[in-house]
Amino acid sequence: MHCPFCRNPDSRVIDSRTSDDGLSIRRRRQCPKCGGRFSTVETASLNVIKRSGVVEPFSREKVMSGVRKACQGRPVTDADLAMLAQQVEEAIRQTGSSQIDANEIGLSILGPLRELDEVAYLRFASVYQAFESLDDFDTAIAQLRADHAHRPVPASGATDDVQ
Fold first, then answer.
1. What are the distances in angstroms from CA 121 to CA 12, 15, 19, 106, 126?
2. DSSP secondary structure code for residue 49 in this structure
3. Contact 46, 98 (CB under 8 A)
4. pLDDT tens for each residue of 70-79
5. What angle do helix axes 60-70 and 102-116 make, rounded to 10 degrees?
6. β-pairing verdict for 12-18 and 99-101
7. 151 torsion bin: left (phi>0), alpha (psi -120 to 50), beta (else)
């Protein structure tokens, strides 16, 4: 790591701390030549292999912007989208791979988006999975309905008894 003050190509780590989310390390460094102190933040790189073969760094912002289009007109906040993007990134990092196919990112988005908003999920899935007919929508909606039928009914604590 080059010193930002004197450009010396060496520096000494004097303190390391893991970030709250555990995804990065903040290091306090000191230059042995000029004595200047500076901080660096290290993160594990995660690259996306696009369909064209181009490799680019993973971006939560790109996940959010792609999902934002599917959420137009829906009761979904930017905070919801940020949380979804974080969940997607965490799921991808858990695979242990430093490079991931763009298609895998789309698959990672579907689950959290379905939990967030089913209409946005259908919109995203229709583009991502290239729905070609109404039958594709019918199949996806039927699957959503079947999943709703198998969900346990939440206990509300309220009773229907009138006294």
1. 49, 44, 32, 11, 8
2. E
3. yes
4. 999 999 999 9
5. 50
6. unpaired
7. beta
β-strand partners of 38 = 29
Round to whole Å and give the CA distance between 140 and 88.
21
- pLDDT band of residue 81 (cuts 50, 70, 90) is very high
Question: Nearest-CA neighbor of 47 among 93, 86, 83?
Answer: 93
What one-letter code names the amino acid at 74? Answer: R
Neighbours of 86 (CB within 10 A): 16
Which two structure tokens, joined as six digits, stand for 30?
Answer: 């000191």
Rounded distance, CA 36 to CA 19, Å?
Answer: 23
- Cα dist from 25 to 17, 22, 45, 52, 139, whole Å: 6, 8, 13, 33, 45
pTM listed for this prediction:
0.66
Angstrom distance (rounded) from CA 66 to CA 88: 13
Task: Give residues with Cβ within 8 angstroms of 157, minimum separation 6.
Answer: none
33: its two tokens:
């030549």
**Cα 126 from Cα 107, distance rounded (Å):** 13
